[in-house]
Design a protein that fits this description.
This protein has helices at residues 17-26, 34-44, 51-59, 67-82, 111-134, 150-155, 174-183, 202-211, 230-234, 255-261, 266-276, 286-299, 302-305, 311-323, 333-345, 350-358; strands at residues 89-91, 100-102, 139-143, 165-169, 189-193, 222-224, 240-242, 246-251, 278-280. By secondary structure, the protein is α/β, with parallel strands linked by helices. The strands form 3 sheets. The protein has a 5-stranded parallel sheet with strand order 4-5-8-3-9. Strands 1-2 form a two-stranded antiparallel ribbon. It has a two-stranded antiparallel sheet with strand order 6-7. The longest helix is centred in the middle third of the chain and has 24 residues, at 111-134.
């Protein structure tokens, strides 16, 4: 340090997840497009952070926050406090400015109205499943967060399927996808349940686009595999065939958001959506996921099926879930199943175990 030079003040960069989320909320989270708005605001201050970085930290309480990101977020917070950065999520107005503040439509809805909307979406989902399984619909793609009941809705229709029915979970290679499509070629049904790897590979996407090409009933939808493959030769599978089956996708991916990002497979995703149809189950916010839990607990036997039949105990469990809505790692129907198990097996300590095992660590 030179003579007369003042020591630099050490900047505090430690930031916990609560502070990070608080700043994100001031920037517009969780409304659609808030991450891009945050990136644009950072650039206006001469700072840089990527949209995936903000999204990953916002959605994962265990994700570490680097000193650089903490410094950037606090700079954004300072901009909000000073008025240099307007709060909320803004959309362009007619003259190109961003003075019009976007409000989440849910802000004007009661809990019962949102529950009814969620119920309507799941009713439509149920009808789509039946149409795909029973043959009147070629395909459908449904998006919703983990543990919202997608798989349960599909499983009850399995026995109604005539002919080949196959559920694929996890991951699948391109050549095995071709083989699965071949097995279902004569009116069979393929269900992809959280098999999101098929949307990240161009070869797999091209196979699916061919399988779901919009054609009049009975017209050929030709699928080809013109690469060398010993497994296809060994199993006597031809290098092309006419696919007349049906496909149902269930995924955690928000396709509209992925397409907005404009990555290298965005055009493939748009093509897939145009062929199969796409619906979101409307569980994009924590409030909606909480109300989905309330709806299922109120309208189904989920707790009784998991050993809790006393209405007072059921209310006790649901009340505990609602009181701690901001703390759960995953706010889903799986949480209800786990809590029923804890309450049944360790009744005197179930809340303590739930807090230790299922809540985020601060």
């Amino acid at each position: 340090m030179g003579a007369g030079e003042k020591p630099k003040r050490k900047t505090e960069t430690n930031m916990n997840h609560d502070e990070f989320q608080s700043i994100c909320s001031a920037l517009g989270a969780p409304h659609r497009g808030w991450q891009k708005a945050a990136v644009d605001k950072a650039r206006s201050l001469g700072l840089h952070v990527s949209q995936p970085t903000i999204s990953q930290i916002y959605n994962d309480p265990e994700k570490s926050i680097s000193p650089r990101v903490a410094h950037l977020m606090r700079a954004l917070q300072d901009g909000v406090v000073s008025g240099d950065i307007p709060t909320g999520h803004h959309k362009p107005s007619g003259d190109g400015s961003t003075s019009e503040t976007y409000r989440d439509p849910d802000d004007d809805l009661s809990d019962d109205q949102i529950i009814n909307d969620i119920g309507d979406r799941f009713t439509t989902f149920d009808e789509c499943i039946e149409q795909v399984v029973c043959g009147s619909r070629q395909g459908c793609l449904v998006s919703g967060p983990p543990g919202c009941g997608k798989s349960h809705c599909v499983e009850k229709y399995e026995e109604q399927a005539e002919g080949h029915y196959e559920m694929i979970k996890g991951d699948i290679s391109a050549v095995n996808l071709y083989k699965a499509l071949f097995r279902a070629m004569d009116g069979g049904v393929l269900v992809f349940d959280d098999c999101d790897g098929v949307f990240a590979d161009e070869t797999k996407l091209n196979l699916l686009k061919a399988a779901l090409e919009v054609r009049p009933p009975g017209k050929e939808r030709k699928i080809c595999w013109l690469k060398e493959s010993n497994t296809l030769i060994a199993e006597d599978i031809p290098n092309s065939f006419d696919f007349q089956g049906r496909i149902l996708f269930m995924t955690n991916i928000d396709f509209e958001r992925e397409i907005e990002r404009g990555n290298k497979i965005a055009e493939h995703l748009k093509a897939l959506l145009s062929r199969s149809g796409y619906m979101s189950l409307g569980l994009h916010s924590k409030r909606r996921r909480m109300l989905r839990v309330v709806q299922v607990c109120r309208d189904t036997e989920i707790m009784a099926d998991n050993g809790i039949t006393d209405p007072e105990v059921q209310d006790e469990i649901l009340g505990f879930v609602m009181e701690n809505a901001e703390k759960w790692r995953e706010l889903s129907l799986r949480l209800i199943v786990l809590l029923c198990n804890y309450r049944k097996n360790i009744p005197s300590k179930w809340e303590k175990h739930a807090t230790a095992l299922l809540m985020r660590k601060r």
